[in-house]
Amino acid sequence: MKIYNKLVRDKIPQIIEENGKKSCCHIAEEEEYLEVLKDKINEEVEEFYETPSVEEMADILEVLGALTDYHGFNKDEIEKVRLEKNKKRGAFKNRIILEKVEEL
């Protein structure tokens, strides 16, 4: 028996059963759901650091989508704010590293 105690995609219990195994799961309440989403985003980012790939990036985006839905954010509004910040402050394309700021 292997213990996971982590958020998984909706079809994982079905997939486990189709592979001849038995899973034990529960549905997270609101407070627990937010905590496991936070854990999941960290897990997915760590996996991306270890093995950068399209699949790992897709997992990150999936969790970001769940966090967006959880908080009731509008995806179009997020994109609008992202573009506004990009216009005002730029993106990260120029790879600028701020080393220090001195008072004049």
Automatic annotation (TrEMBL):
The lineage of its organism: Bacteria, Fusobacteriati, Fusobacteriota, Fusobacteriia, Fusobacteriales. It comes from Psychrilyobacter piezotolerans. InterPro entries: MSMEG_1276-like_NTP-PPase_dom (IPR038735). This is Phosphoribosyl-ATP pyrophosphohydrolase. SUPFAM superfamilies: all-alpha NTP pyrophosphatases (SSF101386). CDD domains: NTP-PPase_COG4997.
